[in-house]
Each structure stands twice: as C-alpha cells, then as structure tokens.
Amino acid sequence: MLYSTLLGKTKKEAPKDETSLNAQLLIRGGFVQKEMAGAYIYMPLGLKVLEKLTQIIREEIEAIEGQEVLMTTLQNPETWKKTGRWDDRVVDVWFKSKLATGADVGLANTHEEPLTELLTKYVQSYKDLPLYIFQFQNKLRNELRAKSGLLRAREFIMKDLYSFNRSEEELNAFYELAKQAYYNIFNRAGIGDSTYITFASGGAFSKFSHEYQTTCETGEDTIYLDREKRIAINKEVYFDDVIEDLGLDKNSLEEVKAIEVGNIFKLKTRFSEPLGLTYTDEDGTEKPVYMGSYGIGLGRLMATIVELCNDEKGIIWPENVAPYRFHILGLNLDDPEVKEKADNVYATLLEGSVEVLYDDRMDVSAGEKFSDADLIGIPYRVVISKKTGNQLEIKKRNEANSEILTIEEFQKLAGS
Amino acid sequence: MLYSTLLGKTKKEAPKDETSLNAQLLIRGGFVQKEMAGAYIYMPLGLKVLEKLTQIIREEIEAIEGQEVLMTTLQNPETWKKTGRWDDRVVDVWFKSKLATGADVGLANTHEEPLTELLTKYVQSYKDLPLYIFQFQNKLRNELRAKSGLLRAREFIMKDLYSFNRSEEELNAFYELAKQAYYNIFNRAGIGDSTYITFASGGAFSKFSHEYQTTCETGEDTIYLDREKRIAINKEVYFDDVIEDLGLDKNSLEEVKAIEVGNIFKLKTRFSEPLGLTYTDEDGTEKPVYMGSYGIGLGRLMATIVELCNDEKGIIWPENVAPYRFHILGLNLDDPEVKEKADNVYATLLEGSVEVLYDDRMDVSAGEKFSDADLIGIPYRVVISKKTGNQLEIKKRNEANSEILTIEEFQKLAGS
User: What pTM did the predictor assign?
Assistant: First the structure.
C-alpha cells in the first residue's frame, strides 16, 4: 500500500474526550476513528489488524471442530421471553426498536437464545450431536457509559462459540479443548506470556467460569496471580475457600491489574431447557443438550495488544497481527535515482506478495516519516535514502539497533 | 467437510410462509435459516457462498483502487440531520433506538452521511484525493413488508463503495471504471450473460442512475431490453425522449422481468455540500468533493443466482460461487472396503486443499444422497460405491451424463 494514498494518515492529536491509551494510539495511528462514544470505525490499517486476528481465531476454532455461521442482528422478542432475558431488568444493555408493523424487535447483544432456538430445527437424535458453532458478529450493547476506548464499546465484533453436547462429561471434555484453543489464540496474537487463566464467578449454574486476563497496569480488573502456576483468581471470588479449592497458597498470590480478553462459561442446560433443545438418546429417552459459551471481543483484543505493546513513540505490533510486515520509508525522493530504487524495492515485494506499506510521500520530512513509522508500529522499518545508496537500513520496531543490508540481501530476507 | 457432522442438513419442506423460490431452495438446502421475516441466518454452507461472493467483489473493487473500511451500525442523528435524512418522512426505513443516556440513535440503513463526515477529518487538500472507499457491512432497513426471500430483506450485508473526486470529470472517469468492475463481478459470479446495464431514474441530481438487472421470470422489475446492444431501460424512465436520448429503437426493445443486482449513482455534491466535505485545490480555492455510490447486496446477489440457476431438483451453483467444488457421495459404506476407498479419496482431496463435501452418512439411502446432492447443487458429484470398485463416477450438476474415472485419474483432475 502506498502511504500517500492511504485513507487514515497519522494525526498529532486524538479527540480530547479519548482518555484511554488504546483509543489515543489507534486513532492517532490511523487504525480507527470514532463515530460516537463507544462506536469505532475501522480504517484500512485497523481493518487489516482485525482480519489478522479473525484469521488466527478462525483457524484455532476450526481446529476444535467449530463450524462458522452468521446470525442476525435483528432479534425476535419471543425467543428471548422464553428465557426471561427480554426484560430490561434482567439484561440491561438491550437496544430495542420497532418494526414498521409496530411489533417490538431487539438488536443483538449476544446470541445464546437465537442459536439455541435455531438448533431445535436441526437436532433431534444423539447422532446430531455434538455441534460446535461459532461466528464473528457485531454486538450492540447499550452501556450507560462507554469508556476505555475499544475496551468497553457499545458496538463491537465478537467471536462467539457455543458448544452443544450430549452430557456434562462431554461438555467438560470440550471445555478443556477450548481452553487450549484460547491459549493458542493469545499466544499467536502476541500476548500469551502476559495472559493467565483466571477463575471467576460461574453465576447460578457453575461454580466457576474462566476468564483470560492479560496483566496490564491500565487494566480495569484486579486479579490475584500465581505467576509460577500461571493461574489467577478474579477479585470477585477471591475468598479463602476458593484459594484452598484451587490448591493455591495465599502467600504466592500477587495482586495485579489486568484486562479480560476472553471468557468461557459452562451454560449446561440454562438455555436448552427453556428453549426446548433436547435430543433422543440411544436408549430412547429425551434429554436436554449441555451447552457452553466461549467469547472473544475482537476490538477489545486489539485494544489490549495496544495497551500492552507500546512505548512513548507509539504502537509495537506483534508480528502475527501487524497490518503490514515491512514499512519502507523513502527519503530524498526528489532524487530520481533514490525514488527509482525505493519504487523498485516496493514493487518487488508486492510481486512476491510480501505485506508492505511504502511511505512514498514527497512533501514530508524524514523526521515526520520516522515518527509516523514509530507511531504506526509495523515490525520492520526499512529506510531507503540518498545515504543508503545501493543498500538499505532495516530496523525492528522494538529494537534500537539497525542493520545495513544490500537491496538483494533484503529481498531475499523478505522472501520476495 | 463431513456431511454427517454439518450443521444444516437438507429439509423436505421450507417454512409455509416462504413463497419465493430463492428462500425455499436456500432453506431446504441448508444454506440459510429464517430468524424472522426478512432476516436470515447464514448456515455453514451459505456462509461459504457468501465468502466466495465477498472475495470476488473485494478483488474487483481493490483492482480499481478501492480501500476497505468497516463503518458502524450505530449512527449519530446529528450527522443525518445535516442532509435532512434523519426525518422518517424522507427516509422511511429507519430503525431507531435510544442510548441508555436517553439520546436518539440510528441503526445504519446506508452510509453516505457517516462516511462523508469521516472524510472531512482526512481530506483538506487536492493531494488527499481521489479516494475510493468500500466496505462489506450489515444494513438494517425497516421494510413494511419483507418479501421475496433474500431479495428484499430487513437485514442484509451490502458491499457499498463510495468515490470521492476533485471534479465531475474525474467522477465520470471513475464511474466508467466502476461499470467495468461490476461487469467483471457479475461475470465471475456466473450471471454475467443474463445481466444488463439499465438506465434508471437519477433522482434530483443526475439524469440517470444505472442498475444492473438480471433477467429472470420471477423478477419484480420490468425493463425494456435491447439484447443486441446489451442495454436496458427501467420501466420508471421508459419514455420516448429517453429512448431517443440513448439512441435506441423502440422496436428493438423487449419487455422482460428482471432482478436488480446492483446499482451505481452519481451523487455529485449532494452529501459533500451539507456535510462540508471540501478541499483546497491547486489554485487555492475551496471546492466541494464530487461523490458517487456503488452498491451490491450480497444476499440479494446470492438469491438472484439461485432464482436463475436451478432446475426442478434444486440449485445449480456456478463454479466460482459454489460452497464446495466436489460432493463425494459414499454409497454402501457398511462395506469396509468401500468406506476405506471413499475415506481415502476425501482425505487426499483435503490434503490437497481441494474444496470437498463428503456425504459419509451411514444410515441414509443412496436415493436420498442423490436427491440431497441435486438440491445442494455442488458442481461435481462424485459417487464411490461397491459398484464403482477402483473407479468412481463423476457427474456435473448441470449435465445428464456421468463419466467413469479411476481414482488416480480423478485425483489428478481435482489437483490433489
């Protein structure tokens, strides 16, 4: 991509009402822009990061037999009344509207109910199970105060996976597979080292749910972490009996701030029973389906990466989720010889399908290009200038030292 | 994909209130399911078709310098008031709701206003133009009567592209490029031969807009078509002066039914002026940006393909948009030798990244597998049975005759 024509160039300032680091850096870097409090537009650079995250998650969820669907935003109140969750006193983040016919309609904030109802059309026998269904879908949540940038938005894309099993044992076995898939996802997204499985409240139906908490000074949550065992307890269930239950020692637990980047729940029969999702087992008896749900908010994940991976100059994207791998800075482009070299390197990388952003702007100083590159945070900065001649200077975003390579050496390294 | 575990197996009957052929076939085939009138869930098979269409459109729009973004569903009323389109008497398909704070909020039915406003943050100089911005985004339209299945839905994914140019001449030049991109899209989607550019009303700001109309007996629109010149006139502007203007002869025009699969408009300064999207030109004067908009509804495109490409047995997907390329039917799978052969062919195709659906069900008759395959409409049906021995039978969905190949010949053909 040519930076000169890209929609979403860097900005010196973020909007004054954005106090969170993630929104400030993402807006200044040209990744997102604000539509209103809690609703962010993905600009071309931000959409590239979103697609990288989506693909990582898709691969890991498909590896545990997930099948992808796409549910609707418009929601039928009758489905939600069956579980009691149409009531604003039970679910307090509904956006509701009216059909032109005058009937009520909901805008999706989650999808347990409609997916459970959908499955009643397809599940009759034990042979129809298990099923693991996921989607990447927009959720609308009417938060009273949207805050913390993309960490707590009113509109966000979520990967939500739901498991449908024949028994609690089967649910438990899949739940362990999902845990491993979640570790893989956070590892591949570059935040695995700082992300810990955390015991949290299980609500009315399970003793615990599990959160994935990424330790970060700016986090809203407080967790008690055993770093060695890589297990944490959320403050909400930090009680002596829980600590003992989990075989942890209070003296090894460290109080730290963290951001919840994922959560997984055993729903058991909470939704299948009121919605009539049952199956006929091998012995001819009718049984309820055992369910689990497994969520990751993609904007929140992106924001967490930014909160964790930055310095005073800007973002430092982990390689797997960066919008591009290389950021070529062409300096002294008014010199036709330099311009030709930089253009050629860019063209060669493109031909080799290497992901590359090329700052080809003519009317911008070297200093501005350097600081834009640091703000945007692409893993490898490549400088081509009058000074570099037939060579070029390559530097990793998170390292201080640069290296001089010939253009041929670089092209070989880049795999083009 | 193993058909035995797929969510969304075929159904004998569509819901009684679905009178359109597209919804009947897509629901019976397991491609979509109905959430409510005008809102359809994409099941795994349907999502595969949607992704194929998305990728074709993305490639063609990127080829004319389109940059992809993702706007929000939540809409700020203030933006829409500036163009007068917040008013329900002007736009009669709004879904509106309230923020928890009590303020009004809109749910997006289109994106001219928010995108134009977004661009005011990035466009100042003639150097910032042109820009061609597109997205694949969910639209919510509060139609009084949702009808015709996926052809006129209340919720649907649209590819909307908007062009931003310095002058009317530049807009006109891009408009011609977009026309060619649209031809390419419909050709690749398999309906190019039946799709005609059609002159339609341009509203208040242009003489004409252009629709892409696919001729089809079940179409809602009436067009007057010159088959030789591949040009049509929509009934709404079928007047003597228009016919003359376009250099057409009334005697060569044939009245036919058609489905609108795309439309393109010159918006000129309709949105840039009220929203203040201007730029400073080379001569220092401030000028309004010239805009165009270019839409394709993806569900409608899928539905049009189904309305056009079917026979009494089911869907006949064009190869480029089919959910899978091959549909292996394993018959006599209770014979371990046959099962091993079929399993091996499937595994070999998977290893070669060939798109394949494998009907591995044990408890289903050969007749049922054949009729399911015809209903689902995958281009190549591959039968492996006791009778076929070390060979297999391959048949194209739209041809009567089958061919016998050795397993090796088939694997070579499939590229695995």
Answer: 0.97
